[in-house]
Amino acid sequence: MDPLFLQHTSDGILTGAIIALGAIGVTLSMTILRFANFGHSELVTFGAYIALVFVSFSGIGAQPIDPFSIGWPFFAAIAAAGVGTALLALATDWLIFRRLRRSNAARLTFIFASFGAALILRNLIMLGFGASPEYYSRELTMAILIPPGIRVMPDQILVLGLTLVLVVALWAFLTFTRAGLAMRAVAESPTLSSVSGIDVNSVTRWTWILSGGLAAMAGVFFGLTVQLRPEMGFNLLLPLFAAAILGGAGSVFGAVVGGLIVGLAENLSVIWISPGYKMAIPFLLMLVLLYLRPHGLFGRGER
Amino acid sequence: MTAYLIFFFTVVGIYAIAVIGLNLQWGFTGLFNAGVVGFLAIGGYTFAILTGPPRADFFGGFSMPFMVGIAGAIIASMFGALLLGLATLKLREDYLAITTFGIAITIQLAALNSDWLTGGNLGLHGIPRPLQDLFESNAAYGVFYLGLVAVTLGIVYWGVEAIVRSPWGRVLKAIREDEVAAQSLGKNVLRYRLEALMLGAGLMGLSGALYVGFIAYISPFDFMPIVTFQIWTMLILGGSGNNRGAILGALVVWAIWSGSGALVANMLPPVWQARGGALQSVLIGLLLVLTLLYRPRGLIGEETTISRHVTGTTGAGLTKKKETKA
Amino acid sequence: MSAPVLTISNLVAGYVPDVPIVRGASLNVIPGSILTVLGPNGAGKSTLVKAIAGLVPVTSGTVMLDGKDVTSTPAHAVAGLGIGYVPQTENVFTTLSVVDNLKVSGSPSASDTRMAIERMFVLFPDLAERRRHLGRELSGGQRQMLAFARALMRSPRVLMPDEPSAGLSPKMVGIVFEKLQELAATGVAVLMVEQNAKAALRASDRGLVLVEGKERLEGPARQLLDDPRLGELYLGKIDEAA
Ligand SMILES: Nc1ncnc2c1ncn2[C@@H]1O[C@H](COP(=O)(O)OP(=O)(O)OP(=O)(O)O)[C@@H](O)[C@H]1O
Ligand SMILES: [Mg+2]
Fold this sequence. Notes:
The complex is a heterotrimer of chains A (about 300), B (about 325) and C (about 240).
Chain A: H1 3-33, H2 40-58, H3 73-102, H4 107-129, E1 144-146, E2 150-152, H5 154-176, H6 178-188, H7 190-195, H8 200-225, H9 232-246, H10 252-272, H11 281-292
Antiparallel strand pairs in A: 1-2
Chain B: H1 2-27, H2 36-51, H3 66-88, H4 93-113, H5 115-118, H6 138-165, H7 167-177, H8 179-184, H9 189-215, H10 225-238, H11 243-267, H12 270-294
Helix pairs in contact in B: 1-6, 1-9, 1-10, 1-11, 2-3, 2-4, 2-9, 3-9, 7-9, 10-11, 10-12, 11-12
Chain C: E1 6-13, E2 22-29, E3 34-38, H1 45-53, E4 58-65, E5 68-69, H2 75-81, E6 83-86, H3 98-105, H4 110-123, H5 125-129, H6 140-152, E7 158-161, H7 170-185, E8 189-193, H8 197-203, E9 206-211, E10 214-220, H9 221-225, H10 228-235
Parallel strand pairs in C: 3-8, 3-9, 6-7, 7-8
Antiparallel strand pairs in C: 1-2, 1-4, 4-5, 9-10
Helix pairs in contact in C: 3-6
The structure holds adenosine-5'-triphosphate and magnesium ion (MG).
């Protein structure tokens, strides 16, 4: 097969994995918090930058682990990014969305507010770090050659592996734990959940924590394999929503498949059309799908 | 200073026209258009292509009269809204928000990448300003253009007021309040929403064209997503569902935006200048969020012209509609 | 007769401020007995049980459970305290399996929950056969049983089904009321809202007619069945008589 095609496929899978991590959070907030959170992309950015701060403080003595470009402290940075971003997500809920829930605001008001929150968060990063791109590591690493000529960076393989672990862990959490079950229950009906003894507020908090944590992972992985920029999350916004909607909002499995489809479509599209339009691909894909299947590939009709 | 004020009010007037267009869509009909800037861009580029001077390797540059450019801008934006509406109006409201947002991004990308039509990232220069030959100085022309914008805004305000008070406008509000009830009255809800989307988009196109006529230049960087946020904040802060609120919002938000811009330019050391724009955006975001939290009906809320539900101190649907459960 | 387990006094409740739907209702439910709340459409019957369950804001009055004031307790806490509410519609999780429906309604203790699920499968053998089915795959009658089982997972002292017979076949209606009597026999107090007055009263110990958010007629079920005022209250013929 054409090596160029295979190269783009391999890049697409990697991009897709990162998009999937972000899209899971979008899907969780759409179904459990019940609004499209346009601020989710900024959690991605914050996660990436929190890790950057951590790395730049603990960088000393951080010998890269061959063949990767990063050392052991990077794993602590990943954890810090997850925790920090989860806290940030909780804080936005506490400051903004919790108040809107209390005043019984309409779903669209939540979306507006998330637009506002996104604007604030994105520009705070811009204020703090400036517009120039940043990197976790300047360490050069050797690409691995996979016949018949696909080049993959060791970091990319690491990211793919970690993503796989995270997705399986999340799936196990939602399927087997009581908290995961409660999240699925609240996704279907908050009222029935509360009369069944589930504290919906606590489920809401868990949802923010999970989606914030996963968003941070997406940000860190993006930062590691591409670069960090204040608008990195913003540029991922359409891919994240496209993936979540393609997968039929509400399904983690769907979000993962949606992420892969979007990542592949984005990367493969450059074979046929100008790379300048790459950013529009996920959106156009979503538009076509919504037109043909209003509830996504795996979604069922809304109640 | 006078020159600056003239400039300031011209921009406010141009924005206000777009805000009224958005008010028609959101305030009176409840359509969440997150791609306002896309329609400004369609209007602006159509105007530039129709009225601009001819040049080699470019499509367009037809050197048509100002009024033809304006009409073309309005029609093109309305046509864009027609296509978008046919594709998306049946979707649930948050999907509509995402798709319109995506459309605006796509339009910006198209503007950036279609050199043959839009001049790519260099943009199109030398777009003639209407009747410029008649004026001796730039200052005098500034006053004229402000007058032109003011008259246009006046006509738009008066026209939209008349429209929303007409039977057609009352059906719009009825749909916004209770789509199911309006449907049961035999109203073709989709058609009304489509018409409102197109009318609003037409005004946005007009606003975009006036902007290009004003600065005599167009580039993709005039149509960044932040413009959409600005216009939304103007509407929400002013009070959606109220056209006077829309104008007031344009004034207040633009004053805050340009005021903070001036502050940044004067106060911050040069190395920080680039980041100053971020501070302006933070302010807009804060303004939006604080309005939603503490003054959901805006500075001047909607006049309550129609009957309300018991719950109904709502401002343009920002509060949850009364739940009707079986 | 034993002491009431649930005592409602002068309860006022409604969905929005200043629009009371329940207007000063009082009632007692005794362990091991069934009290049926009847009344015309819109009388506020559903709102009454929702207010007890913690779903509708209470403006004044009290809800006492076993001598403990539980007024205005959040719904999830009410469920934990021992009041099992069965909504009229959307009363099972359609996207969860039968077992998960029960598991998610159980107490935080995993072993208690496991035991409770086994009890439910003994009580409702139909559900045991369909434990892996999703809620939406059940028939109307099975759904109602699952809804009961869900509400019983925390061994509540009070069970509050809202119109449990609605939409069921006459045969199923009989089975549902028999189940409720069976449950009452184990000591559970049942506070049931019903439209199907005759059938419900035949299965009940006491009956109560709610009109415009206030109780108007209360007494032993058998006595109410023969009371001519019952029909008249439904048709709104009696106005200020009590
Ligand atoms: N979610 C709600 N929000 C606002 N008002 C409501 C709500 N649900 C019910 N109501 C109003 O409360 C009143 C009483 O309703 P409720 O459902 O308690 O009556 P009901 O006695 O159960 O009637 P039915 O026999 O029809 O079930 C009605 O006027 C209804 O319109
Ligand atoms: Mg009822």
